[in-house]
């Protein structure tokens, strides 16, 4: 059985305002770095054998905070990367909410293709295929995958047996931790969207 800790990156200046996608040079804010450290503390006692990260700055920075606690290297993994939003990249959410496609993404996401980008079905397929490959590499290990909100939601939906058109019902907050057990007998979702809090240091 493989135990997977799925961690979303901490916040950036774009979080909640703009679609960042695969843009380079968008880093964690001070708050985002604190969130990454909290996630690292939350996972400090977990016997992780490997840490994989989407190749984007904000995920790598979050993954490095976790890796430092475990004395592990971060393994960059494109297959668990962000949705390729195409022409939506770097647009404000406010402007996108006025488009017809926004309504499709919210109500019928399996039918949505981002302009010059991916479909959500394609994202789910590549991410789940990679999770299954990693499960083959780590059949008895605990591993951490640092990724993005929509990607994690799509993975969770698959293992819950939830149709992609319902994936928006899942919420994945910044620097949250969701946990899956996956074995040859099937998956178990152990926790969803756990938001790490700083550990109290006793005087």
How would you sum up this structure, described in words?
By secondary structure, this protein is an alpha/beta fold. It has a single domain (2-194), classed as Phosphoglycerate mutase-like (Rossmann fold, 3-Layer(aba) Sandwich). Helices cover 34% and strands 19% of the residues. The chain has six helices and six strands, in the order βαβαβαααβαββ. The protein has helices at 30-42, 57-70, 93-96, 100-107, 120-137, 149-160, and strands at residues 2-8, 48-53, 74-76, 142-147, 177-183, 186-194. It has a six-stranded mixed beta sheet with strand order 3-2-4-1-5-6, sandwiched between helices. Helix 2 (57-70) links the parallel strand 2 (48-53) and strand 3 (74-76). Helix 1 packs parallel to helix 2 (57-70). The longest helix has 18 residues, at 120-137. The relative contact order is 0.22. The model has no long low-confidence stretch (mean pLDDT 95).
CATH class descriptor name:
Alpha Beta
Number of domains: 1
The backbone outline, from C-alpha atoms, is: globular
Instruction: Quickly give the CATH architecture.
Output: 3-Layer(aba) Sandwich
